[in-house]
Amino acid sequence: MFIQRKDEKLIEKALAGSQSSWVTLVKRYEGLIYNYCLRMTYNSSDAMDLMQEVFIAIYRNLPAYRGQGQFKSWMMRIASNKTIDFLRASGRNPLFKAGEIDDDDFHSSNSPESEYMQFSTNKQIKSLLAQLSEEQRVVIELKFFQHLTFEEISQQTGVAISTLKTRLYTSLQKLKGQLEIKHVV
């Protein structure tokens, strides 16, 4: 609630022409937007380009934001739409092959042991997520990485809650099956 009020003040000042307020908003959410774009595109330069496009769209549409709902949800809807448009425009197959994923994009700067563990875990997660359809990855992303409720995801995507739950259940079953195969073999 506190962040929401701070966002509202920053938005108000940014709309009045305060460049520093806009920069503060961008800095507050750039990591969130970049990581979302990276998880959806599997490519750091595409994620960076997309992040810039998302913030341009947010800035252009800021006057249309009327404080209804959370700013973060509104912003993530723009990010989601821009990402889906990007994937379609680039002709990417929504089912990535694990070999297409750039492991350097998910780099950590911890100790060598924890860095290796995080690298291994990220590689496994990316490989598993790459086997999901675009619609399934969006639901997983918004539910588990963005911590949105089904109602918020429905508002953001325009998809019925029952459909979202079905996609999530199907995705989790598919991921579970893939994990079982990897651990049995």
Automatic annotation (TrEMBL):
Organism, scientific name: Aliikangiella maris
Superkingdom of the organism of origin: Bacteria
Family matches, as InterPro entries: RNA_pol_sigma-70-like, RNA_pol_sigma-70_dom, RNA_pol_sigma70_r2, RNA_pol_sigma70_r4_t2, RNA_pol_sigma_r2, RNA_pol_sigma_r3/r4-like, WH-like_DNA-bd_sf
Keyword Cell membrane in annotation: no
Domain RNA polymerase sigma-70 region: start-end pairs: 25-92
RNA polymerase sigma factor 70 region 4 type domain location: 124-175
Keywords: DNA-binding, Sigma factor, Transcription, Transcription regulation
SUPFAM superfamilies referenced in this protein's UniProt entry, alphabetically: Sigma2 domain of RNA polymerase sigma factors, Sigma3 and sigma4 domains of RNA polymerase sigma factors
Transcription as UniProt keyword: yes
Membrane-spanning segments: none
Protein name: Sigma-70 family RNA polymerase sigma factor
Family classification: Belongs to the sigma-70 factor family. ECF subfamily.
